Amino acid sequence: MPSIELLIALVISVLAHEFAHMAFAWVFGGRVSGFKLSFLGANAWVRGLEKLKPWKRYIVYLAGPAANALITVGAGVAARFLYGQSELFYNIVLYNTVLCMFNLLPVFPLDGGRLAQLFLGNRVGVLRANRVLLKAGPVVGGALMALGLAQAILYPWNITLLCAGVYIRRKNKQLPPTLYWECINALQSKDKIHMPTKKIILPKHTPAIKAVEYLGWDYFAEIHIEGGRIVSEEELLLHLTAKYLL
User: Which backbone phi and psi does 123 adopt, to 5 degrees?
Assistant: First the structure.
């Protein structure tokens, strides 16, 4: 059984991860609307991230894993000099390394999924990037559940991976509606005055639902439909908003 000292250290590591997210979000203008600590970890709800420039969101999402990486380094140094507590610090190193790497998996709702969403959004379009990641999530969750079953057999009562897999699969089923509106709000909030315009040429009779998939985070799209028609990004977003509100 883990010692009280280790349990306290692990809780502090989880809190440090979330507080790092919240601190950078607050510095950049976001606001924390909720916080929850459970046996699966901690979750913070931050509003206003969709209005931040992508590079600021990169920092917010990376802040949590970076906090765990710093704890890993600090505990590793401590383990070399505090011989009486070396086992405790080595366990802290192991836990924070796993926590950092797990959160960097490129699936929702993990930090790595959010980072992949920003990266892919400028290359294949925001909505198409979401679809790819929402398909990857259940697959990764299922793989973690399978590994978790093996872990539970080899190490009785250790169901960490199993819980992680269930969590990822469940969240990916709940996310699509929320994620869709979050992306629409983010696209509407872009600083179009200071962003470059990207000319996108699409075949004649391309429907709006198809054209909107080419919108990205770091550019203002100008859709040219073969035949002479030009559709602005605002028109596409207004069309989609009206369609899904009716």
Answer: -110, -35
Task: Check pLDDT > 80 for residue 120.
Answer: yes
d(CA 89, CA 76): 7
- Cα separations in angstroms, 246 against 45, 177, 186, 242: 28, 15, 21, 6
Tokens of 54: 């992508």
Its sign, for the CA torsion 196, 201, 204, 210, is negative
90 CB neighbour count, 10 Å cutoff: 14
Q: Measure Cα distances from 6 to 81, 82, 88, 123 in Å.
A: 18, 15, 6, 43
Instruction: Give pLDDT tens digits for 172-223.
Output: 888 877 887 777 777 777 766 677 888 888 787 777 667 777 888 888 888 8
Q: From residue 162, how far is each of 79, 118, 153, 191 by CA, in Å?
A: 30, 28, 11, 42
Q: Per the structure block, which two tokens stand in for 44? A: 């913070």
Read off the pLDDT of residues 47-60 as tens digits, 9 standing for 90 and up: 777 777 778 889 99
> What is the DSSP annotation of 127-169?
HHHHHHHHHHHHHHHHHHHHHHHHHHHHSTT--HHHHHHHHHH
Mean pLDDT of 146-172: 84
* Rounded-to-integer distance, Cα 232 and Cα 106, Å: 31
**What is the maximal distance between C-alpha atoms in the chain?**
76
pLDDT tens track for 216-241: 888 888 888 777 777 777 777 776 66
SS3 of 79, please?
helix
Q: How far apart, in whole angstroms, are the C-alpha atoms of residue 162 and residue 169?
A: 11
The domain segmentation of the chain, as residue ranges, is: 1-104, 107-177, 192-245
